Amino acid sequence: MIKKILLNLIVSVSIFTSVCVAAEENKNAGAPSDELRSLDSRIQSLKKEVLDLNRDLFMLEEELLFPSNTQVSVFLSMDIGTLFQLDSVQIRLNDKIVANHLYTKREIEALKRGGVQRIYTGNLPSGKHEIVAYYTGIGPNNRTYKQGSTTILEKSSAAQFVELKISDNTVKQQPDFEVKIWE
């Protein structure tokens, strides 16, 4: 199946390249505008086909690399974020570092507007697994702040989704780091 999709992708790209070369030759030769419009619409159609094939290939790759019965995905979300300015996150799974991420201002703003980032996707066998997340940034009173959160994941035969949520606790005037396992 993948070989067929790859072959279709290669054929589409080669056709696209030949059409582009032909369009350039016709353009230089002073071809009528109707022919150029027709050629342009065919090029746009081929571009769409290549993009569709690329999307299908990506989805197949995801299915092959991360089958749903062993898949685990870890996401990060942030609520408001006035008490904690996130700098980086490190994820450990069963005492092994599986993800590190340094955040840009743009990524932080997206998270504050309700965005969710997938930090890690991997495979785990059924059973108990420990997930530890370390957050670093600037906390209350502009001090360097490092906090960790730990949870035990009981992996079943279905895909598992874990949310790491950073929120402001206005009562304590401290950030909260919550781990939620979605069923």
Please tell me about this protein's structure.
The chain has 183 residues and is of the alpha+beta class. Helices cover 38% and strands 41% of the residues. The strands form two sheets. It has a four-stranded mixed sheet. A four-stranded antiparallel sheet has the order 3-2-5-6, with no helix packed on it. A hairpin with a 5-residue loop joins strand 5 and strand 6. Helix 1 runs antiparallel to helix 2. The protein is flat. The model has no long low-confidence stretch (mean pLDDT 83).
SSE layout:
Blueprint: H1 2-29, H2 33-65, E1 71-78, E2 85-93, E3 96-102, H3 105-112, E4 116-123, E5 127-138, E6 144-155, E7 160-169, E8 174-182
Gap between N and C termini, in Å? 31 Å
Counted by DSSP, the helix tally is 3
Provide the gyration radius in Å.
24 Å
Order of helices and strands: HHEEEHEEEEE
SSE class: alpha+beta
Strand ordering within the main sheet: 4-1-7-8
> Helicity level, as a percent range?
25-40%
Name the beta content range.
Answer: 35-45%
Low-confidence runs of at least 5 consecutive residues: none
| Highest CATH level, the class of the largest domain | Mainly Beta
> What shape does the CA trace take?
flat
Number of strands: 8
Which CATH-level-2 architecture of the largest domain?
A: Sandwich
What is the total number of structural domains?
2
- Average pLDDT: 83
CATH topology of the largest domain: Immunoglobulin-like
| Biggest beta sheet summary | 4 strands, mixed
